[in-house]
């Protein structure tokens, strides 16, 4: 599995990452959502460099221009609800992509731990397409792999899957590496953090991405 850490280069992306981490900016949920969207846009642009293209002729008012257009059929999938602003960033660039949604939630168990359950899935045909599975926080990796399996069970086998995260833990990257097809998976993340808390929050991370984007849940 190929891994790209986009934030390791000094670019404007570092500012977006700094802002989503900064607790003083966390009171501004509109800025938080927009920064997730901006990171989605930057990642979408980088992924677009790896896709297949074909030449097409476009008629201008003054003549004809030959342009390279994406020939891959792209499907954008995310996990509700924290994935929505990140997904929107991808959709801003891949504006004619097909879309898929999965809901996954952490169900607490008696030992104080939790199991991830997939509940809702909306997905079209994936066979032979390029799947972009985008989820801002890759913590343990288990929701992401469950979502991938649920999508493939429903929609068929994509020809390639790009997993995109904003912050990935080392443990989450390792889990994805071991549980997704190595030959046909590429992982993109803006940043990598080392630690996870006992409740599987990434440290230093950002906190709860869903709460920061949409308000606390009970
Ligand atoms: N989900 C989040 O929102 N934050 C984390 O740190 C881990 C998972």
Total number of domains: 1
| Beta fraction | 35-45%
What count of helical segments does DSSP give?
6
CATH architecture tag: 3-Layer(aba) Sandwich
Distance between the termini: 37 Å
Q: Using the coordinates above, name the CATH class.
A: Alpha Beta
Radius of gyration: 18 Å
Helix/sheet category: alpha/beta
Unreliable spans are none
Hetero compounds: uracil
State the major sheet.
Answer: 8 strands, mixed
Helix content: 25-40%
**CATH fold call:** Rossmann fold
Description:
The protein has a single domain (2-214), classed as Rossmann fold, CATH 3.40.50. The strands form three sheets. Strands 1, 4, 5, 6, 7, 8, 9 and 10 form an eight-stranded mixed β-sheet that branches. It has a two-stranded antiparallel sheet with strand order 2-3. A two-stranded antiparallel sheet has the order 11-12. The protein is α/β, with parallel strands linked by helices. Strand 2 and strand 3 (63-70) form a beta hairpin. The mean pLDDT is 96. The longest helix has 20 residues, at 29-48. The protein is globular and about 65 Å long. The chain is 32% helix and 35% strand. Helix 2 packs across helix 3. Residues 82, 137, 139, 201-202, 205, 208-210 line the site of uracil.
